[in-house]
Amino acid sequence: MFEYAPAPESRSVVDIKPSYGLFINGEFVDPGDGGMIKTVNPASEEVLAEVAEAGAQDVDRAVRAARQAYEQVWGPMPGRDRAKYLYRIARIIQERGRELAVLESLDNGKPIRESRDVDIPLVAAHFFYYAGWADKLPYAGFGPNPQPLGVAGQVIPWNFPLLMLAWKIAPALAAGNTVVLKPAETTPLTALLFAEICQQADLPPGVVNIVTGAGATGQALVSHDGIDKVAFTGSTEVGRAIARAVAGTRKKLTLELGGKAANIVFDDAPIDQAVEGIVNGIFFNQGHVCCAGSRLLVQESVYEPVLESLKRRMARLRVGDPLDKNTDIGAINSAAQLDRIRTLSEIGSAEGAERWSPPCELPEQGFWFAPTIFTGVTQAHRIAREEIFGPVLSVLTFRTPAEAVEKANNTPYGLSAGIWTEKGSRILWMADRLRAGVVWANTFNKFDPTSPFGGYKESGYGREGGRHGLEAYLDV
Ligand code: TAP
């Protein structure tokens, strides 16, 4: 597994400061009523920096700055001028792409190949895409004069730190809102670098405010009276608490929550191509993906060849240093997440499923988990029902397309699904019946800023991306 290790991408391309304040009203300021928290590199457990933990007063200061910027500058600004700022931000993201990718891999643990080739290009693409909408809102199909909502409070998770920021900030700003965003406690650094990019782009002070901190900071933000809109991505449990907190207020709410997607392989699918899609579906980003294909449904007649080929492919996956360009699976983002993955995997074995991982040496320091599959899984098993949010795949079988649909839909979630088959008619038949916000056919984990993304059932409501993503930030 570790035959050859070329020089890792140098971390010297990024300048990490020992300590960061909060980004409020266009400048970095010390927290008034909060303390400091450390953020670590999950691949080494080395402390990367300390960041401010915003208290309720700090959040209040950020919301006031956002309100003033909304009323005096950003709200009244013509769309074509807002677009100029968004294009400028998009270009700076491209120019500083290498720095952003290295910082993302250091703070999150994801392989540099993914942060460099997937995350950062998509971040820039979101800003370019929504910049294009800023002066065309009257033509977006929401009536002749859609209005911004005001100040948006946005809370994001740690799995795609900068990409989730882009999904939230780009449409909000294009529609004329100002924002206060809280990144996840374990991955604040690229949001703070983004704050520097806002300064570099001369974005008017207060349009974007970044308040770092833990859950309590998020809670203070979503329950603040001065915000008009809450956008949250994270767990279903916290999403429920937020829905309760905003119920009966004037705040509009969108929720992007968990998932337990079925990746469905029919017997006519090209096996090698399907296996690549299975691997990408569950091992991309260590499986820390809300729409990960974490339940593999294989048609019984091809179960043996698919499993054999999948195991062969898994044996070639390289787990290790996220900054090494040959790494396929990086570090698990935190000790807490590693613990959750371990616990659910042990429950999988205890409930009778058969566990398999390729031979795999894991580094001693840091948080690691070998790519793992469970076979002999039934729908009653917890590993088939609960989101593991790690590199762990549960394998089930089916006989008929109707049974595949029934099993795929047998989950409280409904974010995504994948279908592998040569038959176009079957793809359409399945897509009509799968209760999932996104259905991929003969591919998986494909994202594009022009496509709306979001869930059914307990995966949340509202859409991000595409024209639909604007609606969440407009009074239509
Ligand atoms: P959460 O624990 O829900 O955290 C998400 C964010 O909310 C973090 O910034 C967190 O702060 C903050 N937060 C925690 N408690 C809060 C509260 N009471 N009020 C307001 N904010 C609060 O989720 P996570 O562990 O970061 O992410 C994993 C989950 O997110 C998975 O279930 C995954 O499926 C889901 N997810 C969904 C999507 C989409 S698009 N549907 C995308 C990514 C992830 P701290 O980080 O400081 O705790």
TrEMBL record:
Entry-linked Gene3D superfamilies: Aldehyde Dehydrogenase, Chain A, domain 1, Aldehyde Dehydrogenase, Chain A, domain 2
Key word Oxidoreductase present: yes
Active-site residues, Swiss-Prot/TrEMBL: E256
The keyword Metal-binding is assigned to this record: no
Domain Aldehyde dehydrogenase: 32-475
UniProt cross-references to PROSITE patterns, sorted A to Z: ALDEHYDE_DEHYDR_GLU (PS00687)
Keyword set, alphabetical order: Oxidoreductase
InterPro entries per UniProt: Ald_DH/histidinol_DH, Ald_DH_C, Ald_DH_CS_GLU, Ald_DH_N, Aldehyde_DH_dom
Record-linked SUPFAM superfamilies: ALDH-like (SSF53720)
Organism domain of life: Bacteria
One Pfam family matching this protein: Aldedh
Assigned protein family: Belongs to the aldehyde dehydrogenase family.
Entry-linked PANTHER family: ALDEHYDE DEHYDROGENASE-RELATED (PTHR11699)
UniProt name for this protein: Aldehyde dehydrogenase family protein
Source species of the chain: Micromonospora sonneratiae
